[in-house]
Design goal:
single chain; about 280 residues; alpha+beta; phage-related protein like fold; 6-stranded mixed β-sheet; 4-stranded mixed β-sheet; about 30% helix; disordered N terminus; Phage_capsid_2
């Protein structure tokens, strides 16, 4: 057997892991503010306040806005996902066995990325809970809750610039499908309907995404309406793979790892919608 076969295995496996993570790893990472190639155990996201315009007298001094600048620190943690690939299994079912383990490692770390982002969302304090029908914990995700969250983002001057997102559980996605404004082409247009794969759609100026990993608190599912800049995600090390041969096991140990973190940057930019499930 060629002495370079192990290197071919390693290179192909690493390529498959990267592809799997990019294809089906994290659903939420593209919806938040993300920073790559961080050096150190933490990084800082800048939070800029709002300024106020004022008039000036002719030949007078231009008024200074004195915008508040604050920073939010995001701590990174290391995560690993390892498994064994038996040498004889690899030779018998080379591509299939390698692809299975590659996908499993990439998906596990992708879910961990989403867990970090969801934990940052959970740390927000703004909640769409009012006194009207359909806005209490006794109800699922109703039209009233969605519109209240939409109103809260508007009242907080959160930009309606195409970078708003909403993430809901699959039960809540099913409830949204019963709302005509969400599912009817008369309101949102046929190109933005949810029927094509049921993975995302546009409504109320936001991209809506179903997700199975949102936090459950008792019988309540925490769903979120937020702006992309309200959550910060940082990566010191993208997914990397280390493969070592263990003769006593006649197998490769495949370790997939990454270093990432997430933090709430702007509390006003995240609204929680509690839905009974």
């Amino acid at each position: 057997m060629s002495a370079s076969i192990d290197q071919a295995f390693v290179k192909q496996y690493q390529a498959e892991v990267q592809e799997a993570y990019q294809r089906q790893g994290s659903k939420l990472r593209p919806t938040v503010r993300s920073k790559s190639e961080v050096r150190g155990a933490s990084t800082v996201f800048q939070k800029v306040g709002t300024g106020t315009a004022a008039a000036k007298a002719r030949n007078g001094i231009v008024p200074v806005m004195n915008i508040d600048h604050t920073s939010v620190e995001c701590f990174l943690q290391d995560y690993y996902a390892g498994d064994w690939v038996d040498r004889l299994d690899e030779l018998k079912t080379n591509i299939d066995e390698r692809a299975v383990v590659a996908n499993a490692g990439a998906y596990a770390l992708g879910r961990k990325t989403d867990e970090l982002i969801i934990a940052a969302l959970d740390s927000g304090t703004q909640e769409a809970v009012g006194t009207g029908a359909g806005e209490t914990d006794a109800d699922g995700l109703t039209r009233a809750k969605v519109l209240l969250a939409f109103q809260m983002l508007g009242n907080a001057d959160v930009p309606d610039d195409g970078q708003r997102y909403a993430v809901v559980g699959w039960k809540q996605w099913s409830e949204l499908l019963t709302i005509e404004e969400f599912s009817s082409a008369q309101f949102v247009g046929p190109e933005e309907l949810p029927w094509k794969g049921s993975q995302a759609k546009r409504w109320l100026g936001a991209t809506w995404i179903p997700h199975s990993g949102l936090t459950m608190n008792g019988a309540l599912r925490y769903c979120y309406f937020y702006h992309k800049t309200a959550i910060g995600h940082a990566s010191a090390a993208e997914i990397a793979t280390d493969i070592t041969w263990h003769g006593d096991r006649a197998a490769h140990f495949v370790n997939t790892m990454m270093s990432q973190g997430a933090v709430l940057v702007n509390d006003a930019g995240v609204v929680r919608m509690r839905a009974k499930e």
